[in-house]
Amino acid sequence: MDYAINMVLYQRDVCPRGQFVTVSHYGMPLFVSRDYTTLNRLQNVLDYIQQVLPLLIPDIKVYLTLKDRATGRAIERWQFLIQNEDLAGPDWKDHKPVTTSRKNPARIQEEIRQTMKQITASISCLPVPPPNGIDWTMAVDVPEWVPIPPGWYRQPLDPIDNPQQLGLRPFSTGLHQMQTVVTYREEAARESSHPPFFWPPPPPHFACPLVRVIIIIPSKLSWFSSDPSSSS
Fold first, then answer.
1. Could you identify which of 3, 7, 44, 129 might form a hypothetical disulfide with 223, taking C-beta atoms 3.0 to 4.6 angstroms apart as the criterion?
2. Which residues, 6 or more positions from 153, have their beta carbon under 8 angstroms from its beta carbon?
3. Maximum Cα–Cα distance for the chain, whole Å?
4. Cα 77–Cα 11–Cα 156 angle in degrees, nearest 5
């Protein structure tokens, strides 16, 4: 997910391209930010995900929302859905957690590589970024009983006008499956009569009767510091 978010920030011109360096991973070149503020914001989210993954949570959603800097309105949202493959079905509470994947590591890396290629290719299907620049926020969707870090708060996601969706091919680690879906604002000149499409069709949702909440991560919060402004 770290590389996927970095690729979106780079490809959508959210952050200056001079802040990124090229690294080789999964057998392909990837762009990674070297800006401290960006790295800190991403690491806060990734550390939190690592903490809650061992819990009995059928799925976790991570959102990257892009906003028009001039208007403050959401124009694009990337959703990364992490599903626990061992907790599928209505009787998931009776399962013992599985901590070791039996899936071939080479196959996992190939599936991740294909997902990264799709993220790059999907950019050509999205509207041109606004000329005044883009701001970005991140949010995590977890059940209400899951604790959240100090300074994070619960709030609904900003709506996107005239939303269209594009789903990417999911990949699986043998423990978790990640499905990426991008929702974007369709401009009037580009409006189409066809419904949103997914390729391939997204997997069915796991049964989860739990109450869920959206956790918004403040853009200037440093999880590792008591001073909220220290990361800016």
1. 44
2. 215, 216, 218
3. 52
4. 15
